[in-house]
Amino acid sequence: MWYPGHINKAKRKIKEYLKAVDTVLIVLDARAPFATTAFERNIFTGKNILYVLNKADLANKKYTKLWMEKIKETSPVISFSKAESVNKIKGFINSHSKKKLGETRVLIAGVPNVGKSTIINKFSGRKLAKTGMAPGITRGLQWINLGSVKLLDTPGILYSKLFNKDVAAKLLLIGSLPVESIDKYDIITRAYEIFKVELNLDKTFEEFLEEYGKKRGFISKGGNIDFERTKNNLFKAISEGKFGFFTYDKEVALWMQE
């Protein structure tokens, strides 16, 4: 399973820097709120935590509402798809954080490609952090000055081993795991099985992939589809919402198993 060395290094650094912060923003993907908790959240115990359901505009609104209600039972949470969400984050920080030496220190965390950098840029009103559709854009910890708030941006973090195939498959569907580096074919096919339910497809993965590749002209020498190119393009399109806006985590009761 894909697990760059910088993630382990980042985890060690996060534990060191936690002493300096009061508040933690944990960013989740609204399409897979449970799957995007696939990191050691217990390291944030004792801190003021705000969960941010990001990319709500790519999710099924009905399930986003259900997840908001469920998470709210145990933790503060907001949905981040509108401009006013920035003010909600600022309000939480102002009411829960203590100023030290004239500034408030906040840490933002989440799995790869969950949209932390986008939130930072909207928070600041300018482009301070690099953004992209691929995981691994942010590779090291960095303090970002936002006036009276000092925000610690962190790289996407994951469990070193994702034992649950469904979790790994959902992370693939939302773009938090790069498909080209997944060496277990059963995770890729499981991701397709989850995805095809949303479109009521009756094709096998191989049948759908061949049809998709032919339509886009991904043909290699010999007239066969270029399997790797087609597979990579397909999962990129899915993660960008090109097929529709879906929620892959539908069992909100899973939140109680965190």
Automatic annotation (TrEMBL):
SUPFAM superfamilies assigned to the protein according to its UniProt record, in alphabetical order: P-loop containing nucleoside triphosphate hydrolases
Alphabetized GO MF terms: GTP binding; GTPase activity
GO cellular component annotations of the record: cytoplasm
Cytoplasm is among the record's keywords: yes
GO biological process, one term: translation
Keyword Cytoplasm: yes
InterPro entries: GTP-bd, GTP-bd_ortho_bundle_sf, GTP-bd_ribosome_bgen, GTPase_MTG1, P-loop_NTPase
Keywords: Cytoplasm, GTP-binding, Nucleotide-binding
CDD domains found in the cross-reference section: YlqF (cd01856)
Residues the entry annotates as binding GTP: N54, K55, A56, D57, N113, V114, G115, K116, S117, T118, G156
Subcellular location: Cytoplasm
Domain G, chain residue ranges per copy: 105-171
Function: Required for a late step of 50S ribosomal subunit assembly. Has GTPase activity.
Entry similarity comment: Belongs to the TRAFAC class YlqF/YawG GTPase family. MTG1 subfamily.
NCBIfam families hit by this protein: GTPase_YlqF
Name used for this protein in its record: Ribosome biogenesis GTPase A
Native source organism of the sequence: Thermosipho melanesiensis (strain DSM 12029 / CIP 104789 / BI429)
Taxonomic classification: Bacteria, Thermotogati, Thermotogota, Thermotogae, Thermotogales
